[in-house]
Design brief:
Elements: H1 2-30, E1 37-42, E2 54-60, E3 72-78, H2 93-98, E4 105-106, E5 112-113, E6 117-123, E7 127-134, E8 150-151, E9 155-158, E10 165-172, E11 178-185
Parallel strand pairs: 1-10
Antiparallel strand pairs: 1-6, 2-5, 2-7, 3-4, 3-6, 7-8, 7-9, 10-11
């Protein structure tokens, strides 16, 4: 009986260990990009730049109509890299977000990004022009040569030919100071 009890205990232990092995595989599997959504990631910046928000503006690329809240639903997460190296050094999307704490939260009102945030944008099929902006009054006390609103370049996105992640970063002038503009790109520079 003692030997049978040890055998049963060993079987339960083996099942327990295998269940963790399978759950790790399922967790990794769930971190693959969703082809129907776009992640807009704004990496952390040094200093006070992280608290300067930029707001999303989504337009129908054909009609020019603002569809930010009619053709898109968004959730956000604060990206906290648990490794000691910067998040963007990883070349693979899955590896980049593997060690990240993942807690998606609904936006309460407007779609914005602060430094270290990722927006998960679910779009209806179509072609879109994506921009971000910061009104001059919301740039707080970050001094730039731009005395007006901070605007970004236009990024065109087609749900038929999707990109998994795009990046939003503040631009720098020739002297390395913030220029008061945003850059949207599918590559992090």
């Amino acid at each position: 009986m003692h030997r049978d009890a040890r055998c049963i205990l060993s079987i339960f232990f083996l099942i327990f260990c295998l269940s963790f092995s399978f759950s790790d595989d399922l967790q990794t599997e769930s971190l693959k990009p969703n082809p129907w959504s776009l992640i807009i990631f704004r990496p952390s910046n040094p200093g006070d730049m992280n608290i300067v928000r930029c707001w999303l503006k989504l337009e129908d690329a054909e009609s020019g109509e603002d569809v930010t809240y009619t053709k898109a639903k968004a959730k956000y997460e604060f990206v906290a890299d648990n490794r000691s190296r910067p998040l963007f050094e990883s070349s693979s999307f899955t590896r980049m977000f593997r060690d990240v704490s993942r807690k998606l939260t609904d936006y309460r009102k407007t779609y914005y990004l602060s430094g270290g945030m990722a927006m998960h944008l679910n779009l209806k099929p179509g072609k879109y022009k994506i921009t971000v902006y910061t009104p001059r009054s919301d740039s707080l006390y970050v001094k730039t040569e731009n005395k007006g609103d901070w605007l970004s370049n236009e990024f065109y996105y087609d749900t038929e030919n999707p990109t998994n992640v795009i990046f939003v970063t503040p631009t720098l002038n020739d002297n390395g100071f913030y220029a008061g503009e945003w850059k949207i790109d599918h590559k992090l520079r």
